[in-house]
């Protein structure tokens, strides 16, 4: 192109980028690593930076069970950044012990930068890798059993909780294991909200929920994985049971049937299991798409919120939370009256209505989102803590969870 010769913008400092794909560029720099296919873009010190996770793995680790991916050893060796402007690739070595990565470093003259040297503006965006978490949850469903005879006999096996496929057409409803999902929340033993990866478990061939796993990572790359088990005597609804309750609710079923007719299509989003204090809430968005119009957008139409005692669908999340809170409070009062007590200990304080709590929760959520857009993490954490406290009041009395089992980073 003659413009290359006659334009003044090109100088001796100009460079030609031959590999513009982020993953392809990282693979060219470090072909000995396996890269996560889901890079994410962050803003750090006024620049756009891509972040992705990188792994070392093998299928030859002695005595280890192979996974569906064909490997029986996998480690999150590096956090990789690619500058979106100039393409600079940096490999930050995590604190995970890994002899394979050590061998590559000795061959190539230490290609890794210690993760403690990562800029804080980048490090605060590091997240627990979803691909690794998926493998760990699949393996842990069997290997949480530590008693040899029980393990050999296949007792107390778990499986990933199943639900309707994400964004499934209301007319279909195929079931599949729930995908792990990221949430910003404080765990039951924490006081501050953080970015977590969550996935629920059910006993094998049974729909009730028996446990859920959460994973997090700090800005130095140190991972933590926790498992929260429900007491055996408690019956906690699993995602399949909650979805069945949603489908069987006469008001919800009638409204969805009315909308899901010629000219429009109802689409169900992910059903999220949200840990709130010592109980859980279930949240599912309902979308509506006009099929008669070419290229019509898919719009969020309703929010469904369910607790152990009630399920409600409303046009907004705030209204659904308020409706569930009112139903749970009424049920708890009725139960307390039947038992001859004065009322539920978890009911809202006198003079405070569920509508007020729900409005406060929505206000805290909006303040958190505004702070998130502005990069004000202190204000964001404060808003999340306030939101968590308000949701605890709305959740009402729930199942008491035992202390979490800190399992560190379980071996694949």
Percent helix range? 25-40%
Q: β content, as a range? A: 25-35%
- The secondary structure category is alpha+beta
Major pleated sheet:
6 strands, mixed
Q: Number of helix segments?
A: 11
Please compute the radius of gyration using only Cα atoms: 25 Å
Number of separate strands: 20
**What gross morphology would you assign?**
globular
Which parts are unreliable, with pLDDT below 50 for 5 consecutive residues or more? 341-352, 397-412
How would you describe this structure to a colleague?
With 412 residues, the protein is of the alpha+beta class. 31% of the residues lie in helices and 28% in strands. The strands form 4 sheets. Strands 1, 2, 3, 4, 5 and 6 form a 6-stranded mixed β-sheet that branches. β17 and β18 form a beta hairpin. α9 packs antiparallel against α10 and α10 runs antiparallel to α11.
